[in-house]
Amino acid sequence: MSRPPVPPSAPELDTDEAKFLVLDELAKVSSNMAVAFSGGEHLLRPDAFDLLKYAADLGMWSFVNTNGKVLVETTAVEKALNATGGRIIFVLPINSVDTDLNKSSRNDDITTVMKAADICREKGAEYFFLLTISKENLSTLEKTIKFLKMNRVPMLRAPFVPRGAGCGFSELLFDSDDMRKFIHPALSANPLSYISFTPFFASPDKMAAAWAEYDVKIEGVGCQAGRSFAAVGAEGGVVPCVQLLDSGCVRGNVREKPLSEIILNDEMFTALRSREKLQGRCGRCRYMHTCGGCRALAYYHTGDIFAEDPTCFFEPVDTDTRSEFEEEQTAQLAGFINYLKYNKPWNGLF
Amino acid sequence: MSDKAEKINRLFELFGAGGADSGSFPELCTAITFRKNKENALKFSQVDFSKRLILLPQCIRSTEKCKAEEKAAEYLCKKCGACKAADIISKAEELGYMGVKILKGGSAVARLIKELKPEAVIGVACSFEGALGMLECERSGIVVQFVSLLRDGCSDTDVNLVDVYETMEFARP
Questions:
Q1: Cβ partners under 8 Å of residue A189, min gap 6
Q2: I need a surface site. Which of A130, A301, B4, B136 has the fewest CB within 10 A?
Q3: Does A152 contact B21 at a Cβ distance shorter than 8 Å?
Protein backbone atom coordinates (compact mmCIF):
# COMPACT_ATOMS: atom_id res chain seq x y z
CA MET A 1 0.00 0.00 0.00
CA SER A 2 1.37 3.40 -0.89
CA ARG A 3 0.36 6.03 1.62
CA PRO A 4 0.52 9.76 1.06
CA PRO A 5 2.03 12.07 3.69
CA VAL A 6 -0.52 14.18 5.54
CA PRO A 7 0.68 17.77 6.03
CA PRO A 8 -0.42 19.55 9.24
CA SER A 9 -3.22 22.09 8.87
CA ALA A 10 -1.70 24.43 11.47
CA PRO A 11 1.41 24.53 13.68
CA GLU A 12 1.55 21.52 15.99
CA LEU A 13 1.01 22.06 19.70
CA ASP A 14 4.32 22.99 21.29
CA THR A 15 5.60 21.70 24.61
CA ASP A 16 3.90 24.31 26.78
CA GLU A 17 0.62 23.99 24.90
CA ALA A 18 0.70 20.20 25.30
CA LYS A 19 1.35 20.61 29.03
CA PHE A 20 -0.99 23.43 29.91
CA LEU A 21 -3.77 23.15 27.33
CA VAL A 22 -3.97 19.35 27.27
CA LEU A 23 -2.44 17.60 30.28
CA ASP A 24 -3.39 20.18 32.93
CA GLU A 25 -6.89 20.31 31.49
CA LEU A 26 -7.22 16.52 31.54
CA ALA A 27 -6.29 16.53 35.20
CA LYS A 28 -9.30 18.78 35.84
CA VAL A 29 -11.68 16.22 34.34
CA SER A 30 -10.86 13.26 36.58
CA SER A 31 -8.34 12.17 39.19
CA ASN A 32 -7.90 8.81 37.41
CA MET A 33 -6.70 9.94 33.99
CA ALA A 34 -4.44 8.27 31.50
CA VAL A 35 -3.10 9.89 28.38
CA ALA A 36 -2.18 8.16 25.12
CA PHE A 37 0.52 9.73 23.00
CA SER A 38 -0.39 8.45 19.58
CA GLY A 39 1.27 8.61 16.22
CA GLY A 40 3.30 9.66 14.21
CA GLU A 41 6.01 8.47 16.51
CA HIS A 42 5.75 10.36 19.79
CA LEU A 43 9.21 9.28 20.90
CA LEU A 44 10.77 11.23 18.03
CA ARG A 45 9.53 14.51 19.52
CA PRO A 46 12.40 16.33 21.25
CA ASP A 47 10.10 16.94 24.23
CA ALA A 48 8.77 13.36 24.37
CA PHE A 49 10.20 12.45 27.78
CA ASP A 50 9.51 15.90 29.20
CA LEU A 51 5.82 15.44 28.38
CA LEU A 52 5.79 11.92 29.79
CA LYS A 53 7.30 13.19 33.02
CA TYR A 54 4.81 16.01 33.19
CA ALA A 55 1.90 13.60 32.80
CA ALA A 56 3.34 11.30 35.46
CA ASP A 57 3.79 14.22 37.85
CA LEU A 58 0.08 14.89 37.42
CA GLY A 59 -0.54 11.30 38.49
CA MET A 60 -1.37 10.03 35.02
CA TRP A 61 -0.34 6.84 33.30
CA SER A 62 0.93 7.37 29.77
CA PHE A 63 0.34 5.10 26.79
CA VAL A 64 2.86 5.55 24.00
CA ASN A 65 1.99 4.23 20.56
CA THR A 66 5.16 3.20 18.81
CA ASN A 67 6.18 1.00 15.90
CA GLY A 68 8.84 -0.39 18.24
CA LYS A 69 11.86 0.76 16.27
CA VAL A 70 12.85 3.44 18.77
CA LEU A 71 12.46 0.96 21.63
CA VAL A 72 14.73 -1.54 19.90
CA GLU A 73 17.40 0.90 18.69
CA THR A 74 17.65 3.28 21.65
CA THR A 75 17.31 3.32 25.42
CA ALA A 76 13.82 4.81 25.16
CA VAL A 77 12.24 2.18 27.40
CA GLU A 78 14.57 2.95 30.29
CA LYS A 79 14.29 6.69 29.72
CA ALA A 80 10.50 6.51 29.69
CA LEU A 81 10.47 4.37 32.84
CA ASN A 82 12.73 6.87 34.57
CA ALA A 83 10.75 9.87 33.36
CA THR A 84 7.44 8.47 34.53
CA GLY A 85 8.46 6.50 37.59
CA GLY A 86 7.13 3.42 35.81
CA ARG A 87 3.77 4.92 34.86
CA ILE A 88 4.19 4.03 31.20
CA ILE A 89 2.58 1.50 28.89
CA PHE A 90 3.82 0.96 25.36
CA VAL A 91 1.30 0.22 22.63
CA LEU A 92 2.74 -2.10 19.98
CA PRO A 93 1.03 -2.58 16.63
CA ILE A 94 0.52 -5.99 15.05
CA ASN A 95 -2.00 -6.27 12.24
CA SER A 96 -1.17 -9.78 11.14
CA VAL A 97 1.10 -12.67 11.99
CA ASP A 98 1.49 -13.03 8.23
CA THR A 99 4.63 -11.16 7.23
CA ASP A 100 3.35 -9.77 3.94
CA LEU A 101 0.03 -8.65 5.36
CA ASN A 102 1.66 -6.93 8.30
CA LYS A 103 4.16 -5.22 6.02
CA SER A 104 1.37 -3.95 3.81
CA SER A 105 -0.09 -1.77 6.54
CA ARG A 106 2.86 -1.39 8.92
CA ASN A 107 5.86 -1.34 6.58
CA ASP A 108 7.49 -4.03 8.75
CA ASP A 109 7.06 -7.65 9.73
CA ILE A 110 6.39 -8.32 13.40
CA THR A 111 10.04 -8.90 14.30
CA THR A 112 10.65 -5.35 15.47
CA VAL A 113 7.50 -5.25 17.56
CA MET A 114 8.27 -8.60 19.20
CA LYS A 115 11.82 -7.43 19.94
CA ALA A 116 10.33 -4.31 21.49
CA ALA A 117 8.01 -6.48 23.58
CA ASP A 118 11.04 -8.51 24.71
CA ILE A 119 12.80 -5.34 25.80
CA CYS A 120 9.73 -4.06 27.65
CA ARG A 121 9.45 -7.35 29.52
CA GLU A 122 13.15 -7.39 30.40
CA LYS A 123 13.07 -3.80 31.63
CA GLY A 124 9.79 -4.22 33.50
CA ALA A 125 7.73 -1.91 31.31
CA GLU A 126 4.10 -2.69 30.57
CA TYR A 127 2.90 -3.08 27.00
CA PHE A 128 -0.06 -4.24 25.02
CA PHE A 129 -0.85 -4.90 21.39
CA LEU A 130 -2.88 -2.81 19.00
CA LEU A 131 -4.56 -4.60 16.12
CA THR A 132 -6.10 -2.49 13.37
CA ILE A 133 -8.77 -4.44 11.53
CA SER A 134 -9.60 -3.85 7.90
CA LYS A 135 -10.74 -6.00 5.01
CA GLU A 136 -7.08 -6.60 4.27
CA ASN A 137 -6.22 -8.69 7.34
CA LEU A 138 -9.47 -10.60 7.87
CA SER A 139 -8.02 -13.84 6.53
CA THR A 140 -5.42 -14.03 9.30
CA LEU A 141 -7.44 -12.39 12.04
CA GLU A 142 -8.23 -15.53 14.04
CA LYS A 143 -4.62 -16.71 13.95
CA THR A 144 -3.30 -13.27 14.85
CA ILE A 145 -5.67 -12.80 17.78
CA LYS A 146 -4.88 -16.27 19.09
CA PHE A 147 -1.17 -15.46 18.98
CA LEU A 148 -1.69 -12.15 20.75
CA LYS A 149 -3.92 -13.79 23.36
CA MET A 150 -1.21 -16.25 24.29
CA ASN A 151 1.21 -13.41 24.97
CA ARG A 152 -0.99 -12.85 28.05
CA VAL A 153 -1.21 -9.10 27.65
CA PRO A 154 -4.29 -7.13 26.66
CA MET A 155 -5.05 -6.42 23.04
CA LEU A 156 -6.95 -3.44 21.73
CA ARG A 157 -8.73 -3.65 18.43
CA ALA A 158 -8.98 -0.54 16.32
CA PRO A 159 -11.23 -0.41 13.29
CA PHE A 160 -9.54 0.82 10.15
CA VAL A 161 -11.02 4.18 9.20
CA PRO A 162 -10.14 6.27 6.15
CA ARG A 163 -8.33 9.09 7.92
CA GLY A 164 -4.72 10.28 8.07
CA ALA A 165 -2.54 7.96 6.02
CA GLY A 166 -5.60 5.79 5.45
CA CYS A 167 -7.39 8.49 3.48
CA GLY A 168 -8.40 7.23 0.07
CA PHE A 169 -8.69 3.60 1.15
CA SER A 170 -12.39 3.43 1.96
CA GLU A 171 -12.57 0.03 0.30
CA LEU A 172 -10.73 -1.36 3.33
CA LEU A 173 -13.59 -0.52 5.74
CA PHE A 174 -15.08 -3.79 6.97
CA ASP A 175 -18.84 -4.42 6.88
CA SER A 176 -21.43 -6.29 8.95
CA ASP A 177 -20.83 -9.51 7.07
CA ASP A 178 -17.11 -9.36 7.90
CA MET A 179 -18.04 -8.60 11.49
CA ARG A 180 -20.36 -11.59 11.77
CA LYS A 181 -18.13 -14.10 9.99
CA PHE A 182 -14.63 -13.13 11.08
CA ILE A 183 -14.21 -10.25 13.50
CA HIS A 184 -16.76 -10.89 16.24
CA PRO A 185 -15.92 -14.61 16.63
CA ALA A 186 -12.18 -13.91 16.75
CA LEU A 187 -12.43 -11.07 19.27
CA SER A 188 -14.93 -12.96 21.40
CA ALA A 189 -12.47 -15.84 21.75
CA ASN A 190 -9.98 -13.62 23.53
CA PRO A 191 -11.07 -12.13 26.86
CA LEU A 192 -8.00 -9.93 26.71
CA SER A 193 -9.16 -8.33 23.49
CA TYR A 194 -10.41 -5.55 25.72
CA ILE A 195 -14.04 -4.98 26.05
CA SER A 196 -14.30 -1.66 24.23
CA PHE A 197 -14.86 -3.47 20.98
CA THR A 198 -18.27 -3.42 19.37
CA PRO A 199 -20.69 -5.03 18.96
CA PHE A 200 -20.46 -6.17 22.57
CA PHE A 201 -23.47 -7.97 24.01
CA ALA A 202 -22.71 -8.11 27.73
CA SER A 203 -25.85 -8.34 29.82
CA PRO A 204 -26.61 -4.91 31.31
CA ASP A 205 -28.28 -6.72 34.22
CA LYS A 206 -25.30 -8.89 35.08
CA MET A 207 -22.50 -6.36 34.95
CA ALA A 208 -22.98 -5.23 38.53
CA ALA A 209 -22.85 -8.84 39.68
CA ALA A 210 -19.56 -9.39 37.82
CA TRP A 211 -18.07 -6.27 39.38
CA ALA A 212 -19.14 -7.44 42.83
CA GLU A 213 -17.75 -10.95 42.33
CA TYR A 214 -14.30 -9.73 41.35
CA ASP A 215 -14.39 -6.57 43.44
CA VAL A 216 -13.42 -4.51 40.38
CA LYS A 217 -15.62 -1.88 38.76
CA ILE A 218 -14.90 -0.75 35.24
CA GLU A 219 -16.45 2.14 33.42
CA GLY A 220 -15.26 1.39 29.93
CA VAL A 221 -17.61 -1.10 28.31
CA GLY A 222 -18.48 -0.88 24.62
CA CYS A 223 -17.74 2.17 22.51
CA GLN A 224 -15.91 4.76 24.58
CA ALA A 225 -16.11 7.70 22.18
CA GLY A 226 -16.93 10.72 24.30
CA ARG A 227 -17.23 8.52 27.37
CA SER A 228 -13.81 7.56 28.68
CA PHE A 229 -12.16 8.61 25.40
CA ALA A 230 -11.41 12.03 23.99
CA ALA A 231 -8.70 12.84 21.49
CA VAL A 232 -6.70 15.95 20.73
CA GLY A 233 -5.08 16.32 17.33
CA ALA A 234 -1.54 17.53 16.78
CA GLU A 235 -2.96 20.98 15.96
CA GLY A 236 -5.32 21.06 18.97
CA GLY A 237 -8.62 19.90 17.47
CA VAL A 238 -10.76 17.93 19.94
CA VAL A 239 -12.88 14.91 18.98
CA PRO A 240 -14.62 12.17 20.99
CA CYS A 241 -12.36 9.37 19.73
CA VAL A 242 -8.92 9.09 18.17
CA GLN A 243 -10.48 7.48 15.09
CA LEU A 244 -12.33 10.74 14.45
CA LEU A 245 -9.33 13.06 14.41
CA ASP A 246 -9.38 15.51 11.50
CA SER A 247 -12.98 14.52 10.70
CA GLY A 248 -16.11 16.62 10.71
CA CYS A 249 -16.54 15.76 14.42
CA VAL A 250 -14.03 18.33 15.72
CA ARG A 251 -15.73 20.02 18.69
CA GLY A 252 -13.33 22.88 19.23
CA ASN A 253 -9.64 23.60 19.60
CA VAL A 254 -7.70 23.62 22.86
CA ARG A 255 -6.08 26.88 21.73
CA GLU A 256 -9.49 28.52 21.80
CA LYS A 257 -11.50 26.66 24.41
CA PRO A 258 -10.47 24.74 27.53
CA LEU A 259 -10.28 21.01 26.89
CA SER A 260 -12.03 20.21 30.16
CA GLU A 261 -14.96 22.38 29.14
CA ILE A 262 -15.28 20.63 25.79
CA ILE A 263 -15.15 17.17 27.34
CA LEU A 264 -17.59 17.96 30.14
CA ASN A 265 -20.07 20.27 28.44
CA ASP A 266 -19.98 19.88 24.68
CA GLU A 267 -23.30 18.75 23.28
CA MET A 268 -21.84 15.87 21.24
CA PHE A 269 -19.76 14.59 24.16
CA THR A 270 -22.70 14.66 26.58
CA ALA A 271 -25.01 12.97 24.07
CA LEU A 272 -22.42 10.25 23.48
CA ARG A 273 -22.24 9.65 27.22
CA SER A 274 -25.99 9.42 27.67
CA ARG A 275 -26.46 7.64 24.33
CA GLU A 276 -29.83 9.35 24.03
CA LYS A 277 -29.32 10.34 20.40
CA LEU A 278 -28.38 6.94 19.03
CA GLN A 279 -30.36 6.10 15.93
CA GLY A 280 -31.73 3.01 14.20
CA ARG A 281 -30.82 -0.38 15.63
CA CYS A 282 -28.37 1.16 18.14
CA GLY A 283 -31.16 3.43 19.41
CA ARG A 284 -33.47 0.52 20.22
CA CYS A 285 -30.85 -1.93 21.41
CA ARG A 286 -30.78 -3.63 24.80
CA TYR A 287 -26.98 -3.19 24.75
CA MET A 288 -27.06 0.55 24.16
CA HIS A 289 -25.00 1.16 27.30
CA THR A 290 -22.73 -1.90 27.23
CA CYS A 291 -22.01 -1.48 23.52
CA GLY A 292 -23.48 1.58 21.82
CA GLY A 293 -22.05 0.63 18.44
CA CYS A 294 -18.77 2.00 17.09
CA ARG A 295 -19.43 5.72 16.70
CA ALA A 296 -16.41 6.21 14.44
CA LEU A 297 -17.59 3.53 12.01
CA ALA A 298 -21.09 4.99 12.09
CA TYR A 299 -19.60 8.34 11.17
CA TYR A 300 -17.34 7.12 8.37
CA HIS A 301 -20.06 4.99 6.81
CA THR A 302 -22.90 7.51 7.06
CA GLY A 303 -21.54 10.94 7.98
CA ASP A 304 -23.61 10.89 11.21
CA ILE A 305 -21.86 9.99 14.47
CA PHE A 306 -25.21 9.03 16.04
CA ALA A 307 -26.31 6.74 13.20
CA GLU A 308 -26.64 3.01 13.83
CA ASP A 309 -23.38 1.14 13.56
CA PRO A 310 -23.59 -0.33 10.05
CA THR A 311 -20.97 -2.95 10.85
CA CYS A 312 -23.19 -4.60 13.48
CA PHE A 313 -25.11 -7.75 12.54
CA PHE A 314 -27.60 -7.67 15.42
CA GLU A 315 -31.21 -6.93 14.44
CA PRO A 316 -33.08 -5.93 17.62
CA VAL A 317 -36.82 -5.39 17.40
CA ASP A 318 -36.77 -3.39 20.61
CA THR A 319 -34.83 -3.16 23.87
CA ASP A 320 -36.15 -6.58 24.96
CA THR A 321 -34.43 -8.43 22.11
CA ARG A 322 -31.52 -10.47 23.42
CA SER A 323 -28.45 -11.44 21.43
CA GLU A 324 -27.55 -15.12 21.15
CA PHE A 325 -24.07 -14.03 22.29
CA GLU A 326 -25.20 -12.45 25.57
CA GLU A 327 -24.10 -15.30 27.81
CA GLU A 328 -20.76 -15.73 26.04
CA GLN A 329 -19.92 -12.05 26.13
CA THR A 330 -21.01 -11.63 29.72
CA ALA A 331 -18.58 -14.43 30.54
CA GLN A 332 -15.93 -12.62 28.52
CA LEU A 333 -16.55 -9.51 30.53
CA ALA A 334 -16.07 -11.54 33.72
CA GLY A 335 -12.85 -12.98 32.26
CA PHE A 336 -11.55 -9.54 31.52
CA ILE A 337 -12.48 -8.24 34.96
CA ASN A 338 -10.71 -11.23 36.48
CA TYR A 339 -7.60 -10.39 34.45
CA LEU A 340 -7.78 -6.78 35.61
CA LYS A 341 -8.04 -7.85 39.21
CA TYR A 342 -4.80 -9.80 39.13
CA ASN A 343 -2.77 -7.64 36.80
CA LYS A 344 -1.25 -4.35 37.73
CA PRO A 345 -1.46 -1.64 36.50
CA TRP A 346 -4.63 -2.60 34.66
CA ASN A 347 -6.55 -2.98 37.89
CA GLY A 348 -6.05 0.73 38.56
CA LEU A 349 -6.75 2.05 35.10
CA PHE A 350 -10.45 1.35 34.73
CA MET B 1 4.23 -28.70 60.08
CA SER B 2 2.26 -30.50 57.34
CA ASP B 3 3.59 -30.72 53.79
CA LYS B 4 0.86 -28.38 52.54
CA ALA B 5 1.41 -25.84 55.32
CA GLU B 6 5.11 -25.87 54.53
CA LYS B 7 4.42 -25.21 50.84
CA ILE B 8 2.05 -22.38 51.70
CA ASN B 9 4.66 -20.79 53.91
CA ARG B 10 7.14 -21.08 51.07
CA LEU B 11 4.83 -19.34 48.64
CA PHE B 12 4.29 -16.46 51.00
CA GLU B 13 8.03 -16.21 51.56
CA LEU B 14 8.79 -16.25 47.86
CA PHE B 15 6.06 -14.00 46.67
CA GLY B 16 4.73 -12.10 49.63
CA ALA B 17 1.13 -11.38 50.43
CA GLY B 18 1.52 -8.02 48.74
CA GLY B 19 1.68 -9.78 45.40
CA ALA B 20 -2.07 -9.93 45.21
CA ASP B 21 -4.33 -7.03 45.97
CA SER B 22 -6.53 -9.25 48.06
CA GLY B 23 -4.86 -11.20 50.78
CA SER B 24 -6.62 -14.55 50.51
CA PHE B 25 -4.43 -17.52 49.76
CA PRO B 26 -6.27 -18.75 46.62
CA GLU B 27 -6.08 -15.22 45.23
CA LEU B 28 -2.38 -15.08 45.94
CA CYS B 29 -1.87 -18.34 44.02
CA THR B 30 -3.95 -17.07 41.10
CA ALA B 31 -2.00 -13.81 41.05
CA ILE B 32 1.27 -15.75 40.92
CA THR B 33 0.12 -17.88 37.98
CA PHE B 34 -1.16 -14.84 36.06
CA ARG B 35 2.07 -12.98 36.60
CA LYS B 36 4.37 -15.88 35.78
CA ASN B 37 2.40 -16.79 32.66
CA LYS B 38 2.82 -13.24 31.43
CA GLU B 39 6.50 -13.04 32.32
CA ASN B 40 7.28 -16.34 30.58
CA ALA B 41 5.04 -16.06 27.52
CA LEU B 42 7.46 -14.46 25.07
CA LYS B 43 10.32 -16.84 25.83
CA PHE B 44 8.00 -19.83 25.83
CA SER B 45 6.78 -18.99 22.34
CA GLN B 46 10.32 -19.31 21.03
CA VAL B 47 11.02 -22.79 22.39
CA ASP B 48 10.78 -25.58 19.83
CA PHE B 49 7.95 -28.06 20.45
CA SER B 50 10.46 -30.90 20.74
CA LYS B 51 11.97 -29.22 23.79
CA ARG B 52 8.66 -28.72 25.61
CA LEU B 53 7.35 -31.05 28.31
CA ILE B 54 3.75 -31.23 29.56
CA LEU B 55 3.00 -32.05 33.19
CA LEU B 56 -0.49 -33.20 34.13
CA PRO B 57 -1.79 -33.86 37.64
CA GLN B 58 -2.92 -37.37 38.57
CA CYS B 59 -6.25 -35.92 39.70
CA ILE B 60 -7.23 -35.36 36.08
CA ARG B 61 -7.73 -39.14 35.74
CA SER B 62 -11.10 -40.83 36.17
CA THR B 63 -10.92 -42.61 39.52
CA GLU B 64 -13.39 -45.26 38.36
CA LYS B 65 -12.27 -45.97 34.81
CA CYS B 66 -8.59 -45.07 34.52
CA LYS B 67 -6.44 -47.84 33.06
CA ALA B 68 -3.13 -46.10 33.63
CA GLU B 69 -0.23 -48.06 35.05
CA GLU B 70 1.52 -46.76 38.13
CA LYS B 71 5.24 -46.39 37.79
CA ALA B 72 7.29 -44.68 40.47
CA ALA B 73 6.04 -41.09 40.73
CA GLU B 74 4.06 -41.25 37.47
CA TYR B 75 1.03 -42.81 35.85
CA LEU B 76 1.59 -44.25 32.38
CA CYS B 77 -1.50 -43.42 30.33
CA LYS B 78 -3.08 -46.22 28.27
CA LYS B 79 -5.26 -43.76 26.32
CA CYS B 80 -8.45 -45.38 27.54
CA GLY B 81 -10.26 -42.11 26.90
CA ALA B 82 -11.89 -41.87 30.32
CA CYS B 83 -10.30 -38.48 30.91
CA LYS B 84 -8.67 -35.75 28.80
CA ALA B 85 -5.11 -36.98 29.26
CA ALA B 86 -5.33 -39.10 26.12
CA ASP B 87 -6.42 -36.11 24.03
CA ILE B 88 -3.53 -34.05 25.34
CA ILE B 89 -1.03 -36.85 24.73
CA SER B 90 -2.27 -37.36 21.15
CA LYS B 91 -2.00 -33.63 20.48
CA ALA B 92 1.50 -33.58 21.95
CA GLU B 93 2.52 -36.48 19.70
CA GLU B 94 1.05 -34.73 16.68
CA LEU B 95 2.98 -31.54 17.43
CA GLY B 96 6.19 -33.37 18.26
CA TYR B 97 6.39 -32.53 21.94
CA MET B 98 9.10 -34.03 24.13
CA GLY B 99 6.43 -35.80 26.15
CA VAL B 100 3.55 -35.72 28.60
CA LYS B 101 3.90 -36.86 32.20
CA ILE B 102 1.07 -37.58 34.62
CA LEU B 103 2.48 -36.90 38.04
CA LYS B 104 1.42 -38.36 41.36
CA GLY B 105 2.48 -35.19 43.10
CA GLY B 106 4.12 -31.83 42.57
CA SER B 107 7.30 -32.96 44.27
CA ALA B 108 8.23 -34.91 41.13
CA VAL B 109 8.55 -31.72 39.08
CA ALA B 110 12.10 -30.89 40.13
CA ARG B 111 13.29 -34.47 39.53
CA LEU B 112 11.72 -34.67 36.07
CA ILE B 113 13.17 -31.36 34.99
CA LYS B 114 16.61 -32.49 36.09
CA GLU B 115 16.19 -35.82 34.33
CA LEU B 116 14.58 -34.77 31.04
CA LYS B 117 16.10 -31.29 30.71
CA PRO B 118 13.19 -29.61 28.87
CA GLU B 119 13.61 -25.98 27.85
CA ALA B 120 9.95 -25.25 28.52
CA VAL B 121 7.13 -26.79 30.53
CA ILE B 122 3.35 -26.59 30.31
CA GLY B 123 1.82 -27.32 33.69
CA VAL B 124 -1.82 -28.22 34.26
CA ALA B 125 -2.90 -28.07 37.88
CA CYS B 126 -4.90 -26.22 40.50
CA SER B 127 -3.65 -22.71 41.18
CA PHE B 128 -1.91 -23.79 44.36
CA GLU B 129 0.17 -26.56 42.76
CA GLY B 130 0.55 -24.41 39.65
CA ALA B 131 2.04 -21.51 41.55
CA LEU B 132 4.48 -23.82 43.29
CA GLY B 133 5.39 -25.61 40.07
CA MET B 134 5.98 -22.35 38.24
CA LEU B 135 8.29 -21.11 40.93
CA GLU B 136 10.11 -24.45 40.87
CA CYS B 137 10.55 -24.24 37.09
CA GLU B 138 11.70 -20.67 37.32
CA ARG B 139 14.30 -21.65 39.89
CA SER B 140 15.62 -24.19 37.43
CA GLY B 141 15.70 -21.69 34.57
CA ILE B 142 12.84 -23.37 32.70
CA VAL B 143 10.24 -21.20 31.00
CA VAL B 144 6.75 -22.26 31.93
CA GLN B 145 3.11 -21.74 31.03
CA PHE B 146 0.31 -22.77 33.34
CA VAL B 147 -3.21 -23.91 32.53
CA SER B 148 -5.61 -23.89 35.43
CA LEU B 149 -8.00 -26.76 36.10
CA LEU B 150 -11.65 -25.94 35.50
CA ARG B 151 -12.45 -27.51 38.85
CA ASP B 152 -10.08 -28.83 41.42
CA GLY B 153 -10.67 -31.05 44.42
CA CYS B 154 -7.84 -33.56 44.06
CA SER B 155 -9.80 -36.20 42.12
CA ASP B 156 -11.75 -36.39 38.85
CA THR B 157 -10.78 -32.86 37.98
CA ASP B 158 -11.20 -31.27 34.57
CA VAL B 159 -9.42 -28.90 32.22
CA ASN B 160 -10.48 -26.92 29.16
CA LEU B 161 -8.85 -28.63 26.19
CA VAL B 162 -9.02 -25.46 24.10
CA ASP B 163 -6.88 -23.68 26.69
CA VAL B 164 -4.39 -26.54 26.71
CA TYR B 165 -4.21 -26.81 22.91
CA GLU B 166 -3.80 -23.07 22.45
CA THR B 167 -0.94 -23.09 24.91
CA MET B 168 0.64 -26.09 23.18
CA GLU B 169 0.39 -24.45 19.77
CA PHE B 170 1.69 -21.08 20.96
CA ALA B 171 4.77 -20.28 18.88
CA ARG B 172 6.22 -17.09 17.56
CA PRO B 173 5.63 -16.88 13.81
A1: A142, A145, A146, A149
A2: B4
A3: no
